[in-house]
Amino acid sequence: MTLASDIVFIPASELPASANHEAESRSPEQCRDSHPDIPMAVSPQIKRVILESPVVSSGEEEVSFDETDGVPEELSARDKLLQMRQYIVKGVLESEKSYLAILELLIHYKRSLEASSQTSKPVISEEDNNAIFFNIKKLYAIHQEFVKELEPKVNNWSHDQKIGEIFKMMVFQFPEFGKYMKNYQVAVTTIHRCSQENPQFQEIAGKVTFGSHAKEVTNLEDALFKPVQRVQRNALVLHDLIKYTPEDHEDHRLLRKALDLSQYNLEEISSTIRESGALPQEKRHLVKSSFLVELVSGQRKVRYIFLFSDVLVCTKKDNNRKASNFDVKWIIPLCRLTIDTHFDYQDDLKHSHKENIEAMKKKIGQLKSELRDEVKYEEARVSKHWSISGLAAARSVDKLKRKIHELEAQLILQLPKLAVKLTHEGGKVHTLLMTTDYEREEWLETLTSLCRKCGHDDPSLSTYEVQELVNTSKALPQVNKFGSVLMQKDEEVLNGTLNVTVHKLNGLVTPCDTYCCVEMDSYDHFFMKARTNICPTSADPAWDEDFELELDGSQTLRVLVYKKVDNKSDRLLGRGALELCKSWLKTNFQEKTISMNDVSLVISVRHTPANRTMRRTPSQQKTGVFGVKISTSARREGKTVPSIVTACIQEVEKRGLDETGIYRVSGVTSEVQRLKKAFDKNVRLGTCHVTDCDIHAVTGMLKLYFRELPEPLFTEANYTNFVESLRLSDKEAKEKCMLGLLHNLPDANYYTIVTLLEHLVRVAKNVKENKMTIHNLATVLGPTLLAPAVKDTTTNPLEMMSKTTEQVMLQSAIVNYFLSLAAQGRSLRRSAQV
């Protein structure tokens, strides 16, 4: 059934030449057959207006710009101001056109309802129609004239162009806006009354669609609030224009007068409205919601936090209840909230165990695969007939989902280590734990902003009212989309590598030392993946540093910019994020600007799918090192282990054992490539360069060397044998088989593996400083050392990706087994074999 709220406006220009005539001559039934989106509940007169109405844009667009984007560095300070002035004026024009489209939409609704009021069955009366759309036509005429005067100025722009008079004439019309704003509450009250009296109008007012293809949808009440917002925006635009108009420019004086006049008019309007109560109070609304961890008497508890515009609500999710599965634990009115982050706390999981996190993440991946198979089985059963086995399949699906939810809860408990203390005015204290600086800053910024706005009025909500508030809000999207990756289809999950180039930072006012950190999620948990070098004492810092990051079910790339303060702490200047998806990621670099309040960061991003990252193509450079068989390199040098491996290991043990995230954090790609070229040209030259490079570039180059070997270090011939031996349940038999396979590898492979594994054990002994456990190291290096070359195949891509995920887990497990043996004191050398 088509509702009145599904009205679609079709431009006359898109109709056949005879369309208007046919619309008048056809019966209502014929009109419905040609245009099924127009409901029969609407009278023929309204239909006719609808058919002749233009398509309206998707709504008023916020125009954003960066203060230095596109401004050549060689311009003078005055020219830069004028360049920014041009961008602002152009943005104002584009925004005005979008706003005009909204007003035009409202006018067409008014005309449609006017036509209805002349019939025997009006939707609403003419009086109510005039009350709802009061002064809309005058506002439209004002803005239409403004655009008409401004557009030729923008199209023929020069730095001497004068637009102050146009803005001043707009400000002179503010009394008309005042009349509209005074009537706004009358309009809203009339909408509510008419909606109760007439279901047909309720359908029309409940859903206003901006354009036939636009996604943005709002109700009539929201659309009528746009002019109220516009009045305030006009004053803000004048502030910006004055800021970027030099004082010696002829427009400066006119813009100042326009601003003074606008402020006077706004004060007059606000005073009158406050006295009459014409504008409504802001409604309570949900701002953020998320799973967080609360520290209760030293114990971690999973909580679901709802942040409303005036109150913070902490709940416990109860999966065993259907009626209300969020039980309220405590509430704090924002007007009585104090926030503190400068304190220490104690609990058993303050230092998260990443090996547990990786194990749980892999287990969830396996359960997801099982769940997908069960769902397919159940759907196949239902499509044929219902049976006892179908019921069993449904129960199996529910059981797997419960297991996934249980593991999700454990994951949430493990990671957080950054505390936020929330104190109620009465003295009650609650401590929430968060995972990353990004997440904590996001919550602090939002809480602080809302606390400033909420004033001193206590919302005085009863427990019942709070529970009802939560129940009506729980279906809204949450901040951390936990479990969303786990339930995605395999073709939607991102794998492979992401090349990120951090270019430059715009918007700094004073010179300082700055650097950037790059975070990326892995199945909804974020990890620091890369860090740029410090750009010293600059107001225009530029890094142009490249990083190659491994994707593992990743959805979001986060970047944080820090100002170096001292050795103890650094100040966060800004943070921003990019949502990663296959719709915009390409195999060539895409440049993106990430806005961070007062500053913005320019980066470039490129995606390489998993089936292209492990080709292991042999080198065409016979005298090189990369892409050359390891036995060839060792024999050429007369050594058991190639020099490139020993040089990197020695350098890491010399200055990298205390480096946080060693082997996990990516080095700058350009520096890795320079090292690679040096070794390919001359091994001795490469060995000398290693001592001067960033340690993460050294480990990145070593991983690249193993990844580009023509065959994996553990050899393809023995890969299946290693996997089968790992699955043995008898510990003694497993150890004997695994060591036997290792010792029977070709000499160059065997000596290199043992040397590397012994080195990694030494790295893991410094886990307190570098945060790299044996499990972490195995996870990072397993696929690099064991993954066979990807071959062109006709296998279904989804099946191949599913198999790849399982193989990655096995490869990491093999390396983890040998590292665990070595860490326990068991020698991996042939001479120690019993």
Overall description:
By secondary structure, the protein is α+β, with helices and mostly antiparallel strands. The chain has 5 domains: 221 residues, Dbl Homology Domain, Chain A (Up-down Bundle), CATH 1.20.900; 121 residues, PH-domain like, CATH 2.30.29; 61 residues; 123 residues, C2 domain (Immunoglobulin-like), CATH 2.60.40; 203 residues, Rho GTPase activation protein (Phosphatidylinositol 3-kinase, Chain A, Orthogonal Bundle). The strands form 4 sheets. A 7-stranded antiparallel sheet has the order 6-5-4-3-9-8-7, sandwiched between helices. The protein starts with 18 loop residues before the first helix and ends in an 11-residue tail after the last helix.
Question: What is the CATH superfamily classification of the largest domain?
Answer: Dbl homology (DH) domain
Note the total helix count. Answer: 26
Low-confidence stretches: 1-73, 212-217, 383-389, 475-491, 793-802
The first-to-last residue Cα distance is: 79 Å
How many distinct beta strands? 18
CATH class of the largest domain: Mainly Alpha
Q: What is the helical fraction, as a range of percent?
A: 40-55%
CATH topology of the largest domain, by name, is: Dbl Homology Domain, Chain A
Q: For the CA atoms, what is the radius of gyration?
A: 33 Å
Report on the biggest sheet.
7 strands, antiparallel
